[in-house]
Amino acid sequence: MKKHEKIKSFDQLIEAEHGRLGTESRNQYEEGSQMFIISEMLKEARKEAKLTQEQLAEKTGTKKSYISKLENGKGNIQLSTLIRIFEIGLNKRIGLTFL
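== Transcriptional regulator ==
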């Protein structure tokens, strides 16, 4: 527990565990966490739309295995495909924020 005694915020914890922004370790963490968020949003939106992975894939011109990979945080996704899946397949709008 001594390792984290002086940590007072989540940002400090992330830095202690994964390094400063711009380091390889931190970049990998950030990429993984963003993919996790997208995968969870995709799963939730698909279930809310009452679609199976197969139905969503058919509706968006992809494969069920691709939708499954995305929902499990295992696949890479192009922005155009992400937009197509959410906007055409799930009737959701995407907003991007750059910090």
